[in-house]
Amino acid sequence: MADTRTDPQTELLDRHAEALALFGERVHAIADDQWDAPTPCTDWTVRDLVNHVVGEQRWVPPLVAEGRTLADIGHSLDGDLLGDAPVASWDTAAAAARAAFTAPGALDRTVPLSSGPTPGSAYCRELVCDCAVHTWDLSRAIGADERLPDTLVALATEVVTPLGDGLAASGMFAEPVPVPPDADAQTRLLGLLGRKA
To answer: DSSP string spanning 98-126?
Structure first.
């Protein structure tokens, strides 16, 4: 009988593609008058949120494909990365990040993150989680479908659950939001990250 199990790296890259595509769909759905709208992320407008996720993607090529360090990159990716063409900026950044992670051996490399040397696969998982959760944020902000694919919810939950109380302590997330015992997986994930479904 043939082995039908998916290789873990192939599975991860599939989730990466799924997260980028879903966030990209939401970016393309932003109306002209929604860029200054508030989001569930405190103090971030829709434009700020998209700029953040674009920035996350822009870090991938220099760190993963080029082997550069944080010091090499410095502050070059700070500030406004969207310019006058925010949707095109997303498309370009997403394509470059995708190319970097799908290059042969990329997931096996060690990447110099602020938290310390990190396997490329772990870095990719973190970004899939980040992109998935911010897809929900963006969806809520612009009135789009907030349901995330079960595959992305499962991966994001795997990433954040071990962090426990450290999430809120990091200052990057609000305090966890209590959810009902029978809450679905997406509601539980959002609760862990301080978001009300």
So the answer is: HHHHHSTTGGGSEEEETTEEEEHHHHHHH
